[in-house]
Design a protein that fits this description.
Elements: E1 8-13, E2 17-22, E3 27-32, H1 35-48, E4 52-56, H2 63-71, E5 76-79, H3 81-90, H4 98-112, H5 122-148, H6 153-183, H7 185-194, H8 202-211, H9 220-227, H10 250-266, H11 268-279, H12 284-305, H13 309-313
Parallel strand pairs: 1-4, 4-5
Antiparallel strand pairs: 1-2, 2-3
Helix pairs in contact: 1-2, 5-6, 5-8, 6-7, 7-8, 8-10, 9-12, 10-11, 10-12, 11-12
C-alpha cells in the first residue's frame, strides 16, 4: 500500500504525445513527445519528486524520455505493455483510452513497483544501436535476395546494386562494432572470454555484449528469464501442461539459437547434453532450447568468475 508521501507516475507513450497520470488521477495532462515537451515534463516531475515513474514500452518512441529521465536522476522504469493490460483486466477496466492507460500505468507503478535498473551508458546505447542496425540490414538483404530469384529482368540490376550496398554497409557496421569492442578494455576482455566457448563466434559475442550487459551480475535463473529462456509452469490442479518460454530479449535468443546449433556439433559439453535430451524423448526444438539456456548459463558463470571455457570443463 502506497503511503501518502509517495507519488507514482504513469506515462502512456505515443509517437507525438505523452499522456501523464500522477497517482489516482489526481493530476493528469498531455504533453508533446518532442525535445521541448520532454524537457518541460521532466522539470515538472523533478518538482514532484516521484517515488517511481513507469513508462510503457512503445516501439522506441519512449527512448528520449527514458534517456533524459535517467540523466535527470528520476527513478524511471520501462515496462511491457502486456503486463499493464493484464492489470487493467484484473481491475475490471475494459475501456481503453489514453487517459485510462496513463491511470492504469500509475496504478501498476504503485501496486507492482517494478525495480529501477541502472541506465545504459551512452557507449552501451551506441553499441546496441550498431548491433540492431546490422540485424535490420541482414533482414533487408535476405528479403532482397528472395526477390532477386523472381523479379522481372528490368529490376534485376536495381536489386543487385542494392544488395551490393547492403553488403558494404553491413561490413562497415561490423567493423564499427569490432572497433568499439576492441577500444574498450572491459569489453575487449569480456568478448575474448566469451569467444573461448566452442560454438560462440564474433556475432554472438558482440550481441551478448550489446543486448545483455547484465551478464555475470545475475544468477542462472534470472539471466535465463531476462533472455526469455526460462520455462514457465502452466499447471492447474491435476493438469500438468507443457512448460514454455516467454518474453525476454529476442536478439539474444536469435544469436543463441545459431550458437546452440553450432555447439551441438562442435562443443563436447553441449553435444553430450543435447544427445542426452534426445535419448530421453525430448523433441529437437525443446532440446535445442535447453541447450541455448545451458550455453547462456555457462557464459554467465564464466563472466562472473572471469574464467575461460577450459576452466568450466575442468
Amino acid at each position: 500500500m502506497a503511503s501518502s508521501a509517495e507519488r507514482f507516475v504513469g506515462i502512456d507513450v505515443h509517437q507525438d504525445t505523452l499522456e501523464v497520470c500522477v497517482d489516482r488521477r489526481e493530476e493528469h495532462w498531455e504533453c508533446h513527445n518532442d525535445v521541448a515537451g520532454v524537457e518541460d515534463l521532466l522539470t515538472t516531475l523533478a518538482v514532484l519528486s516521484p517515488t517511481l515513474v513507469v513508462v510503457e514500452a512503445s516501439g522506441g518512441y519512449e527512448r528520449r524520455l527514458v534517456a533524459e529521465g535517467y540523466a535527470a536522476g528520476l527513478p524511471v522504469v520501462v515496462v511491457n505493455p502486456t503486463r499493464v493490460r493484464r492489470l487493467a483486466e484484473a481491475l475490471g477496466i475494459i475501456a481503453k483510452t489514453d487517459a485510462i492507460d496513463g491511470y492504469v500505468i500509475a496504478r501498476f507503478a504503485a501496486l507492482v513497483r517494478p525495480p529501477v535498473r541502472d541506465p545504459q551508458s551512452a557507449e552501451q546505447q551506441h553499441l546496441s544501436a550498431l548491433v540492431t542496425r546490422r540485424q535490420q540490414l541482414l533482414e533487408m538483404r535476405t528479403a532482397e535476395k528472395n526477390r532477386l530469384s523472381t523479379c522481372p529482368d528490368l529490376m534485376r540490376t536495381d536489386i543487385e546494386e542494392h544488395l551490393a550496398w547492403l553488403d558494404n554497409r553491413i561490413e562497415q557496421l561490423e567493423d564499427e562494432v569490432n572497433d568499439m569492442l576492441t577500444n574498450n578494455p572491459s569489453w575487449r576482455q569480456r568478448t575474448a572470454l566469451i569467444s573461448t566457448v566452442p560454438g560462440i563466434g564474433k556475432v554472438t559475442a558482440a550481441t551478448l555484449m550489446a543486448e545483455l550487459p547484465e551478464l555475470g551480475t545475475l544468477n542462472r535463473q534470472k539471466i535465463a528469464a531476462l533472455a526469455g529462456l526460462a520455462p514457465f509452469n502452466r499447471d492447474s490442479g491435476p493438469r500438468k501442461r507443457t512448460r514454455r518460454i516467454f518474453g525476454g530479449r529476442a536478439p539474444v535468443r536469435r544469436v543463441l539459437y545459431m550458437a546452440a546449433l553450432s555447439a551441438t556439433r562442435h562443443n563436447p559439453v553441449i553435444r553430450r547434453f543435447y544427445n542426452h535430451l534426445l535419448e530421453c524423448g525430448k523433441i529437437k526444438k525443446v532440446a535445442l532450447t535447453a541447450c541455448m539456456r545451458k550455453l547462456l548459463v555457462i557464459v554467465n558463470a564464466m563472466v562472473r568468475k572471469q574464467e575461460p571455457w577450459s576452466y568450466i570443463l575442468a
